[in-house]
Amino acid sequence: MFFFTIRRLLASVLVLLVSSFLVFALCAASFDPLERYYTQNPRPPESFFNNLRETLGLNDNFFVRYWRWLSGAVTGDFGETINGTPVVDQLWPRLLVTGRMIIGAIVIAILLAIIVGVIGAVRQYKASDYTFTFIAYILIALPTFWFAALLKEYVAGGVNDLFGQQLLYTIGEETPGLSLYASGWELWSDRLGHLVLPTVSLAALSFAAWSRFQRAAMLDVLGSDYIRLARAKGLTYRRTVVKHGLRNALIPLTTVVALGIGTLFGGAVITETVFVWHGMGEYLISNGIRQEDINVVLGWLLVSAVFIVVFNLVADLLYAVLDPRIRLS
């Protein structure tokens, strides 16, 4: 297991290096830091552009620029925005905001996918299986922004506590100004109320697809020879399914979840826009793409790549836990 982990770690580092190179190449080809000055009236003199190119290091060749950016990124320095503010100072707080939504969505989606997938496989072609299948296909077909808008319109206003106060909120990650005077449970309950709908919106669409994979994997396992052998030895059906069937059926789901992390980051951008969250999605759209700030876009893409690589590394290690034979491959 130790050598298996080391091999996967080295492979992950290599993948991350290749990803950083591709990210930098795409951004360098798509963004021009001087473009916003071209449309100014009056246009700055050519000497201004020459000095700015020298200051930003644009006169250096591509590989020198990439190495300079990578050296800083490894130490946590993603450069500065066009306004002179360090990117990491703005990116880290927004990552914490988006992170709690994505982590919550992953946990909810995985739990629901396992439960619904197993029920659908065990009760194949029963009423519950048809019901879950219908719901899953509906959720898969719904656009992310539209489903989020439906939750805002028809769910938020209908959930109140015993005193008639609203429990679910539709704008922001917390009530503006609350953190200035509130603390403890009052602050966290408010954040939880703001977190529910965006998390459900992000989790529901992922759960729908993942549950179909879990159902298919579970059906394949239930029809295998070792399951029939376990039943022939006298094990109960429930113990056979839970102890012998579910463990092997989780391997395909692990792959799908690891590959779906990138989709969740993309969905988070849309979800944050709908619910007006000040997270990484808003940072990418407002501060990066709209202002054509290459360092902001580079920082966002690299952080996303790190998360995707880390989750795939975790998935590789989970393979070895779920099926020890994989360690020998």
Beta-strand percentage range? under 5%
- How does the overall form come out from the CA principal axes? globular
Uncertain stretches of 5 or more adjacent residues = none
Report the sheet with the most strands, covering strand number, pairing sense and barrel closure: none
CATH superfamily of the domain at 87-291: MetI-like
- CATH C-level class of the domain at 87-291 is Mainly Alpha
Query: What does the radius of gyration come to?
Result: 24 Å
Number of helices: 13
Helix content class: over 70%
Cα-to-Cα separation, first versus last residue? 11 Å
Describe the structure.
With 329 residues, the chain is an all-alpha fold. The chain has a domain at 87-291: MetI-like (MetI-like fold), CATH 1.10.3720.10. The chain is 74% helix and 0% strand. The protein contains 13 helices and no strands. Helix 5 (87-122) packs antiparallel against helix 6, helix 5 packs across helix 8 and helix 6 (127-141) crosses helix 8 (185-222). The model has no long low-confidence stretch (mean pLDDT 82). The chain crosses the membrane at residues 101-122, 134-151, 192-210, 249-277, 297-322. Its main location: membrane. It comes from Modestobacter caceresii.
Q: Quick gist of this model?
A:
The protein is mostly helical and 329 residues long.
